[in-house]
Amino acid sequence: MFTSFMLNAWLVATVVAPVAGVVGYFVVLRGSAFPAHAIPKGAFAGAAGASLLGISTLLGLAVFALLGALGIGALGRRGRQDVVTALALVMMLALGAAFLSRTTQYEPEVYALLFGEVLGVSTTAILPVAGLGLACVAAIAALYRPLLLSAVVPEVAEARGVRNHRIEIWFLLVVALATAMTLPVVGALLIFSLMIGPPAAARSVTSRPGTALAASAGLALVTVWAALAASYASNWPVGFFVGVLAALLYGAGRAWAGWRRIRPA
Amino acid sequence: MPGVLTAVFEPGFFSSPQVHIAVVVGGVVAVVSAVVGVFTVIRGQSFAGHALGDVSAAGGSGALLIGLSPVAGFVGLGIAGAGTMDLIGVQRLRGRDLATGVVLGAAIGLTALFLYLGSTTGAAAGATQQILFGSIFVVTPGTVPVVAVLGTIALATIAAVSRPLLLSTVSPDLAVARGIPVRLVGLLYMLALAVAVGLSSLAIGAILATALLIGPPAAALRLTSTMARALAVACLIGVLATWLGVLLAYDSFYWGSSHLALPVSFFVVALVFTTYLASGLPAARRARAVRG
Questions:
Q1: What pLDDT score was predicted for residue A165?
Q2: pLDDT of residue B252
Q3: CA–CA separation, B264 and B22 (whole Å)
Q4: Calpha distance B47→B41 (Å, rounded)
Q5: Angstrom distance (rounded) from CA B73 to CA B89
Q6: Cβ–Cβ gap A240/B107 under 8 Å
Q7: Alpha helices in chain A (DSSP H)
Q8: HSE of A255 in the Cβ direction (CA atoms, 13 Å)?
């Protein structure tokens, strides 16, 4: 279970999970679940485009993730955010479909990009992932107060001189960064599960931002570790376990919150 | 090869059976999506509308694996997903977002498993791309009646609850005061959404399902001010974009020398996206005129 090829998987998962937990806390708090799904899924098209042009996949991913975030942010000023997110997502995916129709690339690559390839991580891939992860956490730390304020009490934030719309764009860019970093490892679709399940569970256990952030990062780590172990034991894809465990965590969080409400004080 | 040779319609367009099916199925799906989608956009449930496409695709990949009919898989899991979202979703917008996300995450996990199991047993060659992107040109004639029946069910449901649905969307408090069972109406709407999205993901792929559900209604709602007109304009935009997309994709086979046709979904989405962007122009011009 800890042989050399598994060791890289453990290392990279340990780097990725807390970042997803931290960014995910704000995703849940701000109600940005849709953009958090759309940016990674749309960015996948960038990887398809990059492989068509023969350039680095990571570059393609990053460019599409950033374009998606900026597009959603810019169009969201005029239209409704959920509509704009849906349309930006389908536009990126349609470009991806067009790219794929031009190549003879196949399926295994597509599957890996969508659902991750954590078991195939090379040692050289760990450093860039760690670097981007640090950048994400640093950005969240720098934006911490305005992010929190504009999510919880937008009117107060506006009155204090926080530009809510600008903060939203910065936040979407952080999500894009987290995407570019994690997508090649855990896949476009699973990063989303990690950004939703653990933070939602953490929020139903505590309402203090600091504690919830730590709990969210911790739960994300436990989820990924458990998924890796289960995947190693069963040979089933890591993604399946991440998705199911994240949903179970959310359910457990809801049950815990419900039980605390009805328990006599 | 018999066919009309003009600059617009490349050879064989009118005689190709795939084109006939694509035009009929695409038209039906576009109308159903547009009608359901107008309510989806007004209710702010685009995320659920998109997520149900992925959820039903998980059902499709599962059905493929155990040898069930894909229709049962797509629509069955879609309905189950919609029910779960409704059950765990709190009435607040943010809670609903989260409930949608959790169901979507679990469904994606299941898709990963089903596709993996499918690829190891060899039952689902090419399934990843097929399920994600779909193709309107591979719809079999047998699918046509299924699409028509399910489409009718979704439309009939929406028609039956349209007035209470609209009221409980625009003003939930007033709806409650009038004695409308808001929760039940919401659930019925979610089920109609699941059927509509499941059917269009099956017929035309998950990307187009979302594009046709959200794009034409969002554009129509920006261009019109009454519900009836919004519905009519949304249907018109959806059907025209789909048919034009089918034509362009067919023609694209003859562009250049590579003879690799571009996918229908690319053209339809590009048309829908452009229409949405253009639909913002009149309002922007009015705003500028007011400012002087």
A1: 83
A2: 80
A3: 10
A4: 10
A5: 23
A6: no
A7: 4-30, 33-53, 57-75, 81-102, 107-115, 123-152, 154-159, 164-186, 190-205, 209-234, 238-262
A8: 6
CB contact under 8 A, A37 and B101: yes
Mean pLDDT, chain A, as a whole number? 83
Helices (H) and strands (E) in chain B, counts: 12, 0
Fill in the amino acid letter for B75.
V
* Contact partners, residue B20, CB within 8 Å, separation at least 6: none
Amino acid at B101: G
| A45-78 residues labelled b (16+ CB within 10 A) or e (exposed) | bbbbbbbbeeeebbebbbbbbbbbbebbbebbee
Q: Is the pLDDT of residue A222 over 90?
A: yes
B97-116 confidence digits (pLDDT tens): 888 888 888 888 888 888 78
Q: How many other CB atoms sit within 10 Å of the CB of residue A169? A: 17
Comparing CB atoms, the residue among B102, B215, B262 nearest residue A197 is B102
Cα angle B197-A104-A96, degrees, rounded to a multiple of 5:
40
CA B215 to chain centre: 10
Question: Of the candidates B51, B112, B207, which has its C-beta nearest A93's C-beta?
Answer: B207
Chain segment A18-55, per-residue pLDDT in tens: 999 999 999 988 888 899 889 988 888 888 788 777 77
Which CATH fold would you assign to the domain A4-188?
ABC transporter involved in vitamin B12 uptake, BtuC (1.10.3470)
Dihedral over alpha carbons B241, B202, B52, A194 (to 10 degrees): -110
Residue B247 near residue B9, CB atoms below 8 Å: yes
CA distance, residue B35 to nearest chain A CA (Å): 16
Determine the Cα–Cα distance for residues A235 and B132; give it in Å rounded to an integer. 24
Residue B127: pLDDT above 70? no
Which residues of chain A neighbour B260 with C-beta distances below 8 Å? 101-102
Name which residue leads in pLDDT, B30 or A239.
Answer: B30
Whether B4 has a pLDDT exceeding 60, the answer reads no
CA angle B39, B197, B275 (to 5 degrees): 60
For residue B123, pLDDT over 60 is answered with no
Domains of chain B with bracketed CATH: 17-291 (1.10.3470.10)
pTM score, whole prediction: 0.87
What are the domain boundaries of chain A?
4-188
Distance CA B164, CA A153 (A): 32
Residue A265 has a pLDDT of: 52
